[in-house]
Amino acid sequence: MKKITYLLSFLLVSTFAFAQVPKSEVNNKPQGHYNISKFKQLEQILPTANTYRTASGAPGHEYYQQKVDYKMDIILDDANQKLYGEETITYHNNSPDDLEYLWVQLDQNIRASDAITNDIKAGGPLTSYNPQKFTETFLEQPFDGGFKLDYIKDMEGNDLSHIVNGTMMRIDLPAVLKSGNKTSFKIKWWYNIPKHTIDRARSGYEHFEKDGNNAYVIAQFFPRLAVYNDVEGWQNLQFFGRGEFALEFGDYEVNITTPADHILDGTGHILNRKDMLTKKQWKRYEEAEKSFDKPVIIVTQEEAKESEKSFSKKTKTWNLKAENVRDFAFASSRKFILDAQAVKIGNKTVMAVSLYPKEGNPLWEEYSTKVVVNTLESYSEQMFDYPYHKAISVHAKRQGMEYPMICWNYGRPKEDGTYSERTRNGMIGVITHEVGHNWFPMIINSDERQWGWMDEGLNTFAELIAEQRLEKGFPSRGYPKGIVDYMSGDQSRIAPIMSKHENVYQNGPNAYSKPSAGLYILREVILGHDLFDKAFKTYAERWKFKHPTPADFFRTMEDASGTDLDWFWRGWFYTTDYNDIGIKEVKKYVVTDKPTEKAKAAAKPYGVTIDSFLPALYLVNTDSEEYTEDMAKVKDPSKDIPFLNEYLADNFSPEERNSLKKTKYFYEITFEKPGGLVMPILVDYIYADGTKESKYYPAEIWRFNDKEIKKVFATDKEIKEIIIDPNQLTADIDTSNNSWPKKKEDSQFDQFKKNTIKN
Amino acid sequence: MFIPLLAFTSHKYYISLTKIDFVKEEKTVQVTMRFFIDDIERTLESRYQIKLELATEEENKKADIFLKKYISQKFKVKINNEFKDFKYLGKEYDNDVVFIYLEISNIAYITNIEIQNSMLFEEFPEQENFIKTNINNIKKTLILRKENDKEMLIF
Asked: Is there a single domain that holds both residue A375 and residue A509?
């Protein structure tokens, strides 16, 4: 009996489908097409998996990376703002390939007077020039920056043939470097240190007029090897200024000679720290190593102020040693105050350190180390335990730049020591961000030159989590609603996230906030915390101390969450599509046992009337002509419609009947999607009694129709209001179509005007 | 790297947003401008050699006067081929952002509108001033840059 019913209703449904094909289409048949579904797999875009990188997104069984060790002697000439260096580089060829030459990065050459970075800047004259800008642009001789190379020699002292190409240099090896072998060579160089305060060079010095001192934040200060790997071969993108660095891991032994009254800290262990500090300071340092609740000031403001006056002609040499780092940087000045605190990370003690001139106080003494501690703890929870022994935050005007174990951060109070909330928040944000870079890209070592978003975007997301851990409600960036203006902007000025770093129009949203907002949506809307957090951790674990690519990230997130996210990567990362979902129409229905005209028509092709079918239930739109007042009398279909009542009695026990839903209101909701992105629909149904029901329709609801879908929603309560994405979690660029009935909301302008009139 | 120069939150780029809505029933054009506080503060401070301290307890009491003066120098609207004066209604803050509200009244219809916005260009050569208009139920986005600080829309 039941079987027949089902068979007939199946026939009825398929008849509907058939009847819907318009005749004109049969005559004018459209051409075929490639797969244009937004849910098309990414296979054609992602590189083919291989033995170096697996299809699951993990390193493959033949994954390799090169190793490069540096031994350097550096002299910081404070009087003339020059840096002199001599280094021995040992290159380990772990690749399966034999190498004829090595490529070396000369990043300082971006400041050379003939640097190509100036030549690729296009644009007409400014509307106006202030005198400083005019002088810089048209009058001044360019700064004489860039590496001055004294020699490049092999270990026997023979000159090595080489050619400089902008910010890179090829060294031709006398003999092919066989796979599995290593080679060593020496470079001697010097350069003029730029003022980083002028053009935001990522390193340099700030001059303090009042006391005549300089504070140095030094990085990209030595010729270092470019990456050679299975993805790019030799990295061959010049340093134009935006696309940052791609570097190999290795071990460093660095001796840095500074004026005797300088305080220095940098990447790695300071082997002779005890000799570098006074007895008192050393004692305080030992206290700091045991102080887990607050920072201990090791070099005090008073001591720093004394040093400011000394301008020592003597020098001292700091011995630093770092293992398994991808870069090296240091900061040095006689102005520096130093404080530190111990942090428990797993079963290890890590030192959180801050280095700042008195100009940073009182802000820095109060917040810097505290923020470093929070970042170390939060990022260790999110990704993996911080593997190094310290993390230093250095105060530098207008800076925000990251290196292994050390970073430069802004946040300077006014001269009278007061500071605004914005300065404080800015400082907390930048320290969290830069210390966080220890994970992305210092350890999870993506290629920054190629993909800015892989470190900046992932890091902006982790930063948001860390900031909220420190202060709930902190004005973090990187939320979906923060990217709405960008995504709704002029399409000719927007690039997909998956664009080369140098080629994006608006670096901030492109590399920072949009990827972060995407991850936020994945975590809060699509995957949920448990699946997302595990997948994100898995990516971090798999690729720590390695070189991941975008595909490794996309694949791991899918692999570890057990979720096909190709549609999300495609839309959010590979296109500039935006999200806009709205409610187009809501129809109310009542249920009846009287066959509708549509049903009668469907029966016709079988040569029978609708009476030949078993009795059925029909939904009638209350706005249609077929709707009668009789139909409104059906309050509870399961009781008021006799054959349904009988069917329930025959097939369900009294207990089962009691547990059935009391459905009596039927709605057909038409969701429209003016936006090109596919996105889950988050809907709040608000009932007449004030209660609400939140529904989640996965993105796949759009798989057969990218523009418009209908959904039937049946309930025992009348719906008063429907709202899409009530908490602004999906970066919907136009919320004027997000509610039913349509709400006329006061614009921001009207609200302001009303409030000002009131006051 | 952290992109912001001085400011915070989403400020990794030099951008301002001006919304221009024509409310026909009220015969008014509503202008809502959004700037990063640090950008506009730095520009006005260097231009007028003043201290503004926007959004702090020590905010310069003449801040609105300077803002109004600056806007009238750098922001010009021509409607139906005629320059229009606007009323400066005031400003409000949200984190690192300032909203400024202007109103142009007695506009019965709009057949064309020319918008010039060269604010902040003198201080930030990379500045982009986005204009979003909603006029006669047509939405448009314009981007004004230093080389091209004026656009006209014809309806």
From this structure: no
Q: Quick check: B103 and B115 in contact, CB under 8 A?
A: no
Tell me whether residues B3 and A752 touch, CB distance under 8 A.
no
In a domain? residue A24: no
- Do A155 and A175 contact (CB within 8 A), yes or no? no
From chain A residues 130-149, the ones with a CB under 8 A of any chain B CB are 130, 133
Question: Do A512 and B12 count as a contact with CB atoms less than 8 A apart?
Answer: yes
Each residue of A596-624: pLDDT tens digit?
888 888 888 888 887 777 888 999 999 99
A422 to B146: CB separation less than 8 angstroms, yes or no: no
Give the pLDDT confidence of A175-193 residue by residue, as tens digits: 999 999 999 999 999 999 9
User: Is residue A13 in some structural domain?
Assistant: no
Domain extent at residue A695: 578-759
Q: Does B56 touch chain A (CB under 8 A)?
A: yes
C-alpha A658/C-alpha A660 separation (Å) is 6
For Cα atoms A386, A392, A398, give the angle at the middle one, nearest 5 degrees.
125
Instruction: Say if B21 is an interface residue toward chain A (CB within 8 Å).
Output: yes
Residue found by looking up tokens 């530190």 in the block: A340
Give dist(CA A728, CA A744) in Å, integer.
Answer: 18
Q: Which of A417, A444, A471 is the last residue in one of the domains?
A: A444
Verify that A78 and A189 share a domain, yes or no. yes
CA A120 to chain centre: 28
Domain check: are A455 and A587 in the same one? no
Q: Looking at the structure, tell me whether residues A234 and A187 fall in a common domain.
A: yes
- Closest residue to B56, CB basis, from A124, A420, A747: A420
Task: Identify the closest residue of chain A to B19 by CA–CA distance.
Answer: A749
Closest-CA residue of chain A to B55: A420
A753 touches chain B (CB under 8 A): yes
- Here the CATH number for the domain that contains residue A535 is 1.10.390.10
| Model-level ipTM above the cut of 0.90 | no
The domain locations on chain B are 20-154
CB contact under 8 A, B90 and A749: no
If contacts are CB pairs under 8 Å, which of residues 57-116 in chain B contact chain A?
89-90, 92, 95-96, 99, 101, 103
> Do A171 and A262 share a domain, yes or no?
yes
Which among B1, B141, B147 has CB closest to A401? B1
**Which of B5, B6, B8, B51 is most worth mutating to test chain A (most A CB atoms within 10 A of its CB)?**
B8
User: Domain ends where: A444, A473, A490?
Assistant: A444
B25 token code pair:
């029933």
Q: Are A288 and A294 in contact (CB under 8 A)?
A: no
Same domain, A233 and A288: no
Q: Taking Cα atoms as reference points, which of A283, A312, A281 lies closest to residue A299?
A: A281
State whether A551 and A617 are in the same domain. no
Encode chain B (155 residues) as per-residue pLDDT tens digits.
555 433 333 334 678 899 999 999 999 999 999 998 988 999 999 999 999 999 888 899 999 999 999 999 999 999 999 999 999 999 999 888 899 999 999 999 999 999 999 999 988 877 889 898 999 988 888 889 888 899 999 98
To the nearest 10°, report the CA torsion of A657, A662, A667, A668: -20
Domain assignment of residue A451, yes or no: yes
Contact B143 A493 (CB under 8 A): yes
Q: Is residue A43 in a domain? A: no
| B125–chain A Cβ distance below 8 A for any pair | yes
Return the residue of A nearest to B57 by Cα.
A420
pLDDT tens-digit readout, A240-256: 888 899 999 999 999 99
Domain count, chain A: 4
Same domain, A129 and A263: yes
- β-strand partners of B112: B154
| DSSP category for residue A168 | E
